[in-house]
UniProtKB/TrEMBL annotation:
<dbReference type="InterPro" id="IPR050703">
    <property type="entry name" value="Flavin_MAO"/>
</dbReference>
<dbReference type="InterPro" id="IPR006311">
    <property type="entry name" value="TAT_signal"/>
</dbReference>
<keyword id="KW-0560">Oxidoreductase</keyword>
<comment type="similarity">
    <text>Belongs to the flavin monoamine oxidase family.</text>
</comment>
<protein>
    <submittedName>
        <fullName>NAD(P)-binding protein</fullName>
    </submittedName>
</protein>
<keyword id="KW-0732">Signal</keyword>
<dbReference type="InterPro" id="IPR002937">
    <property type="entry name" value="Amino_oxidase"/>
</dbReference>
<feature type="domain" description="Amine oxidase">
    <location>
        <begin position="42"/>
        <end position="490"/>
    </location>
</feature>
<dbReference type="Pfam" id="PF01593">
    <property type="entry name" value="Amino_oxidase"/>
</dbReference>
<dbReference type="InterPro" id="IPR036188">
    <property type="entry name" value="FAD/NAD-bd_sf"/>
</dbReference>
<feature type="signal peptide">
    <location>
        <begin position="1"/>
        <end position="25"/>
    </location>
</feature>
<dbReference type="InterPro" id="IPR001613">
    <property type="entry name" value="Flavin_amine_oxidase"/>
</dbReference>
Amino acid sequence: MLNRRNFLGTGALGAASLMASPSLAGVTKAEKADVVIVGAGLSGMNAAMLLQDLGMKVIVLDANDKVGGRVRTVDTPDGPLDVGASQVGRGYARVIDACQKLGLKLIPEDRDLLTFGVHMYDQWIDPKTWAANPLNLTVGEERNIPPHLMGSSIVHKYNPLKELDEWLDPKYASMDISLRQLMQQKGHSEAAIKLAEYSSPGIGVDQTSMLRMWQEETRGALDRRLGTEPSRRDHPFGEANDHKLINGLASISNIEGGTFQLPKAMAARLGDAVRLKKMVKQIDLTDKSGTVTCADGSVYVGRFVISALPFTMLRDVTINGRPNPIARKAITTMPYANTARLYLHVERPFWKDDGMAPSFSTDGPIGMFWAIDNHTGEGQHRAMVVMVGTVGAAIARYGHEEAIQFILDELARLRPASKGLVKVRTYKDWARDPLQRGCGFSLAPGHVNAYARKMNTPWQVMHFAGEHTRRIDYGMEAAMESGERVAIEIAGRA
Ligand SMILES: Cc1cc2nc3c(=O)[nH]c(=O)nc-3n(C[C@H](O)[C@H](O)[C@H](O)COP(=O)(O)OP(=O)(O)OC[C@H]3O[C@@H](n4cnc5c(N)ncnc54)[C@H](O)[C@@H]3O)c2cc1C
């Protein structure tokens, strides 16, 4: 098990010996470092900070003009708005620790999702009376599962994992299958499988391995165990916020001023080690060093290299080194899910005009509408149209303006009362972000057995970080976990 104390206990390491490595002699034009880190997201920068603390010279390269990757905060008339990561759980040890060290304040999330209705088969459905609804073609106990919770309920029901890293245990190799296959094995009706298509965690009922879904589910259960009351899972995505403070932390916290404050403060700590607008194009590996070449011709040579890029991006980087079929397969085939969100300001709660549930899930092209409130009263509210899974993948076909108009039109069609009352604050489609091409990694059925157990093995001197290399965590904490892991690996080899 990774252990921060063990890691810091190796602190006698010095940079000087590494810098004097004969393998780097003879390289004149390239800038040299002990470790060249590609990607200034949380994973790359966490590794950089830990290695710098050990006295190593690190250089962190990022193609963007800012650090943070999938942590991004935009300014809006309603204040800072996180279009990437925003929620910090009570179990986020590394994120919380970094916030404390860097002087950032965690504040309880002020966002509550209002009740969900369901729009399916071109009709409004009341989840409370769904069991008796003639449109409900499911059978037996399935009938009691609200249609928008079918996917997540089934995933939860059959989750066999007790420990956070068990998803990688070969004893579960036979479960590296899709949700459709699992439901068929367990004798579920075709109607239930159809409903799961609209509410499956991961990309979809056919695209994502159960082991990948259960990893996330099992990690989520850990945060729930740190809560004060049983969690309510009455909406299709995420948890109800219980608001109670334990050791000063709510079940969900945000970083004051927006999550971007974290990578910004990490970059400030790293100083001139961070180099922006450095699009890495090629990595040449030997057993003694790695040479990283950027699109602008600049070259960096490290005794070690860390790839902290999502594989959607690493697959465009030419990697020369000893053949490594497992890494190549992972890099070239790992699927990525999309999230696209339209962030709205609601002038007046239109759900009080039409009398319907404020939030809703739909089997149509906009997925979910989240009505957000922190006072449950009158006046202005926030809202989000949240498109994930196959809906998120489909919306990525549209350009920015076209997507916004399409979503607003569909919202107005479903909820005419919303017309004129919603104002767009911003829109973000992560699949269309040229430096991301997706919101997060997935693993297709068969991918855990094919490569996930071994894909973190270093490729000569290159180590792999990034949330997609997680073992036990999720979200930002997975990125931090992976940064810590590669720092330990390198400290152990140096
Ligand atoms: C919409 C959304 C909501 C989320 N919500 C939450 C949440 O509430 N809570 C939570 O914990 N997590 C959340 N996450 C997940 C979290 O943001 C990620 O797990 C984490 O930020 C990933 O960090 P990373 O270092 O692995 O990768 P990234 O942040 O993707 O960093 C990779 C970096 O590589 C750079 N790069 C790409 N290509 C190149 C290249 N060729 N050369 C050089 N640099 C390159 C990119 O610019 C980027 O900065 C969310 C993510 C999204 C997209």
